[in-house]
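Long-time lurker, first post. I've been practising inverse folding by hand and with some scripts of my own, and I keep getting stuck on stretches where the structure tokens seem ambiguous. Below is the full token string for one chain I'm working on. Before anyone asks, I'm not after the true native sequence, just a reasonable design that respects the backbone. If someone could post their per-position residues I'd love to compare against what I wrote down in my notebook.
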């Protein structure tokens, strides 16, 4: 019989830094487009694997000297190479016991995006179904959702990425995390260059008695800034497209519109194009990179959590007044 402890021990030996298990009942309130059983109806357990984003991945952007490290090592092959290998090996381990193991791809979807295709038949939900990785991590007991909606763990604060495995093996679930990591300092709100995080409007969900709450987000402003079209976060658009007066605070684009806008103009901005080319050679994606470096939602957050002792401190403070 396969146990949770065996799965978690194997996944960590395979390279995962974090592993948690949720039972399928914790997803009872999830809508169909976000429910594990829409992908694999026989799901009994949801396994979430995490890999840390190394603190040094942010340094080049912080110093204003090198913008590609965070995109390559915080999003691309530098982190997902290890995490995907650990996930693949763990799936093989589970299936060697006669249980099915279904990996959920980390595609970028939002409720406003909606299905990308028509149903294959009248009784099926339209593709592509995804699962909220952050809510799955919360359901697996790995931590909590911070005010910026970035997931926080006791080990790394906001610095991790996740993969998900659905299985018909009935595994003992981890307890829902009951601690408090987010201090509600609101540095994420103040230091987000997009102004994308609301100070007073929030969203919340409840999982097995624990309420997770975060600030309402403007996903269009976030995506435009993430891809480098915000002059407050990136110097490159102003240099290469001086006639483009894109005041992010006045933008009303949806996430999808901002996504398409980024694809259209990325090759017109030389540095964004360079980052996209570099990541394309590694991932074969060719998409624009993360130019903002998550200044408010991740950088300011882990700097604050380190300073107040919520997560482990490093030898050198991250944000230094020079």
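-- Answer (accepted) --
I ran through it position by position. Result:
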């Amino acid at each position: 019989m396969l146990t949770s402890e065996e799965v978690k021990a194997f996944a960590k030996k395979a390279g995962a830094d974090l592993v948690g298990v949720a039972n399928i009942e914790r997803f009872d309130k999830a809508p169909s487009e976000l429910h594990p059983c829409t992908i694999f109806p026989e799901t009994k357990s949801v396994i979430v694997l995490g890999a840390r984003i190394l603190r040094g991945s942010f340094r080049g952007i912080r110093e204003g000297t090198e913008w590609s490290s965070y995109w390559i090592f915080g999003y691309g092959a530098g982190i997902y190479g290890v995490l995907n290998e650990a996930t693949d090996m763990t799936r093989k381990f589970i299936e060697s016991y006669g249980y099915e193991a279904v990996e959920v791809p980390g595609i970028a979807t939002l409720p406003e995006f909606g299905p990308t295709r028509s149903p294959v038949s009248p009784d099926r939900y339209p593709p592509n179904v995804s699962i909220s990785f952050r809510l799955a991590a919360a359901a697996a007991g790995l931590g909590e959702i911070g005010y910026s909606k970035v997931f926080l763990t006791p080990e790394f604060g906001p610095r991790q990425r996740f993969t998900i495995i659905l299985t018909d093996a009935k595994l003992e679930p981890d307890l829902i995390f009951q601690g408090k990591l987010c201090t509600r300092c609101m540095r994420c709100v103040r230091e987000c260059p997009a102004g994308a995080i609301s100070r007073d409007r929030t969203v919340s969900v409840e999982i097995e008695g624990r309420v997770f709450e975060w600030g309402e987000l403007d996903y269009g402003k976030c995506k435009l800034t993430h891809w480098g079209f915000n002059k407050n976060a990136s110097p490159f658009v102003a240099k290469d497209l001086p006639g483009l007066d894109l005041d992010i605070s006045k933008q009303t684009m949806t996430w999808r519109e901002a996504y398409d806008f980024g694809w259209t103009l990325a090759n017109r901005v030389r540095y964004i194009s360079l980052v996209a080319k570099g990541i394309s050679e590694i991932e074969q994606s060719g998409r624009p990179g993360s130019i903002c470096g998550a200044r408010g939602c991740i950088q300011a957050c882990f700097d604050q959590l380190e300073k107040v002792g919520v997560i482990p401190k490093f030898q050198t403070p991250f944000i230094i007044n020079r």
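A couple of notes from the structure itself: DSSP finds twelve helices and eight strands in the chain. The radius of gyration is 20 Å. Happy to go over any region you disagree with.
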